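Re: that backbone. Tokens:
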């Protein structure tokens, strides 16, 4: 089993960026991953859990992640913003959402959903392919964009990543290349994977119900069933010990449990 794909999401809830390598920050996150977030006037996240309009925003990032092009799905006109100068981007976001919205930055610890298991989410390509097979017309790329995992592993067995978590009170150690990680739990999913990642609409009927039924049916023998209070769980939440700061993950690194 090797690391076959690295995906970073510089702005929480928006488009990802594929990378061939990434450093671990001092706070145990992947550098540049979810270091920006969109919030409203009260400081609450503006994300896919809150509004499907998030899915209509397209972004690409400069190599240094300090600038980004923004445009609306289906439109050709793009605007480039310097992310450290948020005045213009805040006006653009406010106009788009039709309420006060602004970009905030936390370059060290980022804006992970889980502040304890704040490391990268891990999934296998075989799992994504198997899950896509459950829904006619769903592609591998659409599955990736729906579940937004950071690290993708290659190998023939669907749900191999369920080896990376243990019992309810256990943190399971594993290593990718030179980086040691701790597996916490199978990731509880939200409404976002039920939607088309470009249009923000419920494009697959009964997505969550079908997913839960087949996830339970296909649960591998090596998965700890005690971690499934329900079966709308997919990919693995992790943390990275502070000892790993400054080390890097590379596509092609071997995985060891």
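Recovered sequence:
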């Amino acid at each position: 089993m090797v690391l076959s794909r690295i995906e970073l999401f510089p702005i929480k809830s928006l488009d990802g960026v594929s990378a061939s390598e990434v450093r671990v920050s001092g706070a145990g996150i992947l550098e540049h991953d979810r270091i920006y977030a969109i919030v409203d006037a009260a400081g609450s996240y503006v994300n896919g859990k809150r509004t499907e309009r998030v899915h209509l925003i397209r972004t690409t990032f400069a190599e240094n992640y300090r600038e980004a092009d923004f445009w609306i799905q289906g439109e050709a006109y793009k605007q480039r913003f310097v992310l450290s100068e948020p005045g213009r981007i805040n006006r653009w976001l406010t106009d788009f959402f039709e309420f006060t919205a602004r970009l905030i930055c936390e370059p060290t610890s980022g804006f992970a959903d889980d502040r304890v298991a704040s490391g990268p989410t891990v999934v296998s390509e075989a799992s994504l392919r198997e899950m896509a097979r459950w829904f006619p017309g769903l592609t591998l790329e659409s599955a990736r964009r729906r579940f937004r995992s950071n690290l993708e592993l290659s190998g023939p067995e669907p749900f191999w990543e369920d080896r990376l978590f243990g019992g309810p009170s256990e943190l399971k150690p594993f290593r990718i290349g030179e980086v040691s990680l701790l597996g916490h739990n199978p990731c509880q999913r939200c409404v976002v994977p039920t939607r088309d990642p470009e249009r923000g609409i419920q494009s697959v009927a009964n997505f969550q119900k079908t997913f839960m039924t087949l996830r339970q049916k296909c649960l591998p023998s090596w998965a700890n069933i005690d971690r499934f209070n329900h079966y709308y769980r997919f990919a693995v939440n992790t943390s990275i010990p502070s000892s790993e700061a400054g080390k890097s993950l590379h596509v092609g690194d071997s995985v060891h449990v």
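The mean pLDDT is 96. Residues 2-7+19-29+113-256 form a domain with the M1 Pyruvate Kinase; Domain 3 fold (CATH 2.40.33).
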